Recover the amino acids of this structure.
């Protein structure tokens, strides 16, 4: 079993300390509900979340996100309460105002989800236009370790109204029926 503490600390030892060539970002969040692809990963309740990442001037980046979770599976023993999501990616400009991101992500859980081991990989391709629009395609060859692939497609947009207020919207479709019994718009 993966040592979750090692996954949180290991990225800190890999960080190049040259601030002129890299950026470190972090965030702490209390979410009123952790909703992901049409379902709540916190059973409609609050979730504590953290993110730390490192971006090099070459476009390569890595980081990790962590969140409390509650799949609503109290009847199952050894249930997961924590999700750790390390990621590694590369971002590059294509033409003026257009940027491509390619990312690998691994989802780790500190227990089982609905009575089953559920760690899995997911791969992302994102196309950004001028920080206003983003198209995303993702794929997992074994979604929630259920023996079935999944796909996800999303288009999102954001428009800054002021320095502290932004309007955003998105639409997406998840092809997850074989793994988790439903697709979701």
């Amino acid at each position: 079993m993966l040592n979750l503490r090692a996954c949180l600390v290991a990225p800190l030892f890999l960080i190049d300390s040259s601030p002129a060539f890299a950026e470190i970002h972090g965030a702490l969040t209390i979410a009123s509900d952790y909703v992901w692809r049409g379902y709540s990963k916190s059973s409609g309740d609050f979730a504590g979340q953290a993110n730390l990442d490192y971006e090099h001037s070459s476009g390569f980046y890595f980081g990790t996100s962590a969140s409390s979770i509650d799949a609503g599976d109290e009847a199952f023993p050894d249930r997961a309460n924590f999700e750790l999501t390390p990621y590694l990616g590369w971002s590059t400009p294509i033409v003026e105002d257009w940027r491509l991101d390619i990312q690998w992500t691994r989802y780790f859980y500190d227990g089982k989800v609905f009575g089953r081991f559920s760690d899995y990989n997911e791969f992302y391709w994102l196309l950004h236009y001028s920080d206003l629009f983003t198209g995303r395609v993702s794929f997992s060859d074994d979604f929630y370790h259920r023996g079935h692939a999944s796909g996800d497609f999303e288009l999102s947009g954001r428009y800054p109204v002021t320095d502290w207020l932004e309007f955003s919207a998105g639409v997406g479709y998840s092809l997850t029926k074989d793994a988790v019994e439903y697709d979701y718009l």
